[in-house]
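User: Sorry, folds how?
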Amino acid sequence: MSETLAALLADKDPCAAAIGAPGRAWMSYGELRSLSATVQARLRAFGVGAEDRVAIVLPNGPEIAAAFITIAQAAVTAPLNPAYQRDEYSFYLKDLQAKALVVSEGYDGPALAAAEPLGLRILRLHADAGGPAGCFRLEGKAASVPAPDGQPGPDAAALILHTSGTTSRPKIVPLLQSNLAASARHIGASLALTPADRCMNVMPLFHIHGLVAAVTASLAAGGSVWCAPGFDALKFFGWMAEAKPSWFTAVPTMHQAILARAARNKEVIVNHRLRFLRSSSASLPAQVMVELQQTFGAPVIEAYGMTEAAHQMACNPLPPRAQKPGSVGVAAGPMLRIAHEVENRLVDGTGEVVISGPNVTPGYEGNPAANAKNFFEDGGRRWFRTGDQGALDDEGYLRLTGRLKEIINRGGEKISPLEVDGILMEHPAVQQVVAFAMPHPKLGEEVAAAVVLREGQSATERDIRDFAAARMADFKVPRRVVILDEIPKGATGKLQRIGLAEKLGLGETA
């Protein structure tokens, strides 16, 4: 049965803890429901209706968790990375067709500069520092005509995110109320979450991983989520002692940083036993999974997700079933199969991983070509192509064997190489550029670029990196820029990103 986010919260114990944060009292489910009603009324007064899109640019912490959950019950949310620069915000706000922007009370950054020329309604979030974690009020200019009241139904969009593509334009992924509710239920079932569970969130809340796996799944189960102000390996174990979580979810690079400090925090680990740890958004090295299990004395549940699936697709099961290091687990919500990499049909053996289920986006917005390429029907079901290559073993565990797409996966952050190309090509000395992934021992992949300079022009690697850093978020800036007389080409004369790191001798670097 299709659900909405409001329905997920409707039956929870009003006195139970819902949202927490360092040094703050807990917000109860009763307080969260009351805040949701207030936020909906405020949005309607600001002229924001159920189908209108609200961009959210807030720092990590309980306020963005509460803002997402409450606004998504009343309108369409679009959380954006606070690290973006003005040109990036301008693109995303235009592409989203956002009606309003939510920022902190004293914010005066690039998102505001990008929003004002577009005529967006600016809504200021005033956090209640003395109240329970996540409490806030929205202030803004009232509309001359309020928006009609009413809550979105299961088939209405609740969350809009962009996913990087190998085309020059990131694709818009609308996720419905029913998609988010289904995914939250799937994650809760795969992790056996109950109201007794508490998640300590260290994931960014502009990303599907934190929004759905940590926040929404916890609340759907009637549990609690304790929101750290971002990830900090130096503070992690102090937070763990305060939060007393039963689990946390993170990307592999975070897990590796936590392991590096675990030896000096054995007392915290012993005194605050976790039921399990979860890893997602990038491949977890098998040796890291084993070390985490040994260090925390708890199972490590690796999951496989992506934006188009409202996060989770597969998940290593809880004991007594086995966690298989190097595998991303078994189907955990949607149906998971293998398809022919070119033909629209399911196959046995190795091929492209495909999924079908209630958590899967209905399709990319305004992009029929991408939909035709990424969705197909077989056996009476609609299948989504993940772009990943893999195979299922006899027990239904999925092992990924490669990526068919050229997206750079930097520790879970997906980066379009063509977006990087476009920025570097604006440098006056650059004639030709190809951005690509190079191996990295901790992040999995890092951004690199091969560049040919214009005749008679000069530029150093540092010049080009500085140029990029002034125009894009830091995680997209190439860590290596190789200046060449000619970029290697494939047999057909095309510039090929895949394998370029190996051709140029860019191996693993710390």
Notes: The chain has a mean pLDDT of 93. The two ends are 48 Å apart (CA to CA). Residues 5-302 form a domain with the Rossmann fold fold (CATH 3.40.50.12780).
